[in-house]
Design a protein that fits this description.
The chain is α/β, with parallel strands linked by helices and 370 residues long. Helix content is 33%, strand content 14%. It folds into 2 domains: 56 residues; 281 residues, Spore Coat Polysaccharide Biosynthesis Protein SpsA, Chain A. It has 10 helices and 10 strands. Strand 1 and strand 2 form a beta hairpin. Bound molecules: 2-acetamido-2-deoxy-beta-D-glucopyranose (3 copies).
Length: 370
């Protein structure tokens, strides 16, 4: 991450201190009230669950305040960060005349889509909660929710019912169609995909990727390698785009595209599409084999490196620069989430030490006994 300027009296500093103070107050309040906490029979000292929701600070306030000092403006000319395995800072520059200059707030929906309820919810209801035991699905979903709160976007977790005749991931086109009419954009992520930078708004990425009003759907390509030349390729040897991360824009074409996609397995408009009801990659293959060829100019395909894969992947440079998608090592999604939150939590502390706020640093000039 990149630190905001460190001048002692900057407004950012004031904001950081305020956010810090609010958090300390909130956590202090919780600690003060803790004797009344209910401790569950199965719970260890680490996983007591507060059952009275009126005592839990609203998560959206906490995260908004926590990240406020770090947030990048939608059209900030540059974005500077420590890239994976690169010793020095990396600076990326927006193209000239960025289109998205304001936070779009509730016009953006961050969307999770599952056919099963979260496993962690079941455990929570049995009185257990422990971050270290949380599975990657909840880790991913919680990080999406947090991202939405940090930037003031809307958030929904859709629990869709299973199809009887096709793979569960086929729920995507109809779910997008049901909600896009109420938003300008839907940002959809699979549970094993997440934003790498919690403090970088989607507007900045849309600017960076040059998303235009005509782009109904944006996705990142999958990797391609000589060794597995066919694995991610369609029948014309074109690499599939991955549906694990999608930016869907409410424009004149979007409903037509989603309808074509959802109805693809009917074999009416696209003979042979029903083949993809169950085999891999289901709706993703159907989109790659059929839909995108009818809507080329409305579909934006990003390089794999930008919004697919994760650190350590070498094929097609899919290292998840902005959006990470853990095809394997899925538990690492929790590490990304944790690192982002720790950055935001500890920045005000670092600043206090750097600026000797409250006179916490004492200089001992002479090393003698009093
Ligand atoms: C925002 O842009 C300015 C000017 O290019 C730059 O100095 C600053 O570091 C950028 N902010 C972040 C968080 O990267
Ligand atoms: C990092 O920056 C320093 C100072 O500019 C330079 O000497 C060094 O070679 C850079 N390291 C890398 C890996 O680029
Ligand atoms: C398939 O596409 C890849 C690039 O994505 C290319 O390197 C390869 O030669 C192509 N294979 C055939 C049989 O055309």
């Amino acid at each position: 991450m990149m630190l905001p300027p460190t001048s002692a009296r900057s407004p950012l500093f004031a904001l950081a201190v305020t956010a810090g103070a609010v958090l300390i107050f909130i956590f202090g309040l919780l600690a003060w009230q803790s004797p009344a906490q209910v401790s569950f029979p199965h719970a260890s000292v680490h996983d007591e669950v507060v059952t009275d929701s009126s005592r839990t600070p609203a998560a959206h306030d906490v995260f908004r305040l926590l990240f406020a000092p770090m947030k990048v403006e939608p059209a900030n000319a540059t974005f500077t960060f420590y890239d994976e395995n690169i010793e020095n800072l990396t600076t990326l520059r927006l193209p000239a005349r960025p289109r998205y200059t304001k936070n779009m707030g509730k016009d953006v929906l961050v969307l999770d889509l599952e056919t099963r309820p979260l496993e962690s919810t079941k455990q929570y209801k049995e009185g257990q909660y422990d971050w270290t035991k949380l599975n990657h699905v909840s880790g991913g979903v919680f990080s999406h929710y947090t991202y939405a709160q940090v930037h003031g976007y809307d958030y929904k977790f859709i629990r869709a019912h299973e199809f009887e005749d096709r793979h569960a991931t086929w729920i995507k086109p109809s779910a997008l169609a049901q909600h896009i009419k109420n938003y300008k954009f839907i940002v959809f992520l699979d549970a094993d995909a997440t934003f790498r930078f919690m403090h970088l708004p989607i507007e900045w990425m849309l600017n960076y990727w040059k998303i235009e009003p005509m782009h109904s759907i944006t996705m990142a390509l999958d990797p391609w390698s000589v060794e597995e030349a066919d694995y991610n390729s369609d029948r014309f040897n074109r690499t599939y785009a991955n549906t694990g991360f999608m930016v869907v824009q409410n424009n004149a074409k979007i409903m037509e595209i989603l309808k074509a996609w959802h109805e693809c397995p009917d074999d009416t408009r696209y003979p042979g599409c029903s083949y993809w009801k169950e085999p891999k990659f289901h709706e993703q293959s159907a989109f790659g084999e059929h839909i995108r060829y009818d809507y080329e100019k409305y579909v934006k395909e990003l390089p794999c490196a930008e919004a697919n894969g994760f650190p350590g992947v070498t094929v097609s440079d899919c290292q998840g620069r902005f959006v990470r998608h853990y095809w394997f090592d899925k538990a690492n999604i929790k590490k990304d989430f944790r690192d982002n939150v720790m950055n935001a939590l500890t920045l005000p502390i670092q600043r206090m030490f750097a600026e000797n706020a409250g006179g916490i640093i004492h200089e001992q000039v002479e090393n003698v006994l009093p």
